[in-house]
Amino acid sequence: MLLYMHKGKIHRATITEANLNYVGSITIDEDLMDAANFIEGEKVQIVNNNNGERIETYVIKGERGSGVICLNGAAARRAEVGDIVIIICYAMMTPEEAKVFKPTVVFPNEHNKLD
């Protein structure tokens, strides 16, 4: 049996852009991706603290050090610039792995930078 477990999280990032005219996904500053242990193309869940929306999409790399958190395509309709979101990724693990695994959680500042 495999369990679907919390692998990494960017807690309380600020949406900087919403680009409806894009194929899809969420663009995340590569510094935040590295810190949260996200991989380009990885599936993530986005929880919008401002309106309660929950969506799933995949990650694409944003410019390193830019602070960008951009919802693209249809997802752009689920948030506004300035909304606070939590971005979570999961991994499948055996129960034994899950008992010892420690997820990575990062807490960016209001400019999506790591202090």
Summary keywords:
115 residues, mainly beta, Barwin-like endoglucanases, 2 helices, 8 strands, 45% strand, globular
Would you kindly provide a written description of the structure presented here, covering whatever features stand out?
- The longest helix is centred in the first third of the chain and has 7 residues, at 30-36.
- The relative contact order is 0.37.
- With 115 residues, this protein is mostly beta strands.
- It has one domain: Barwin-like endoglucanases, CATH 2.40.40.
- An eight-stranded mixed beta sheet has the order 2-6-3-5-4-7-1-8.
- The N and C termini lie far apart (39 Å).
- It is built from two helices and eight strands, in the order βββαββββαβ.
- It is globular.
- Helices cover 11% and strands 45% of the residues.
- The chain has helices at 30-36, 95-100; strands at 3-14, 17-19, 25-29, 43-48, 54-62, 69-72, 84-93, 104-106.
Low-confidence stretches: none
Question: What's the helix-strand series?
Answer: EEEHEEEEHE
Q: What is the count of distinct domains?
A: 1
CATH architecture: Beta Barrel
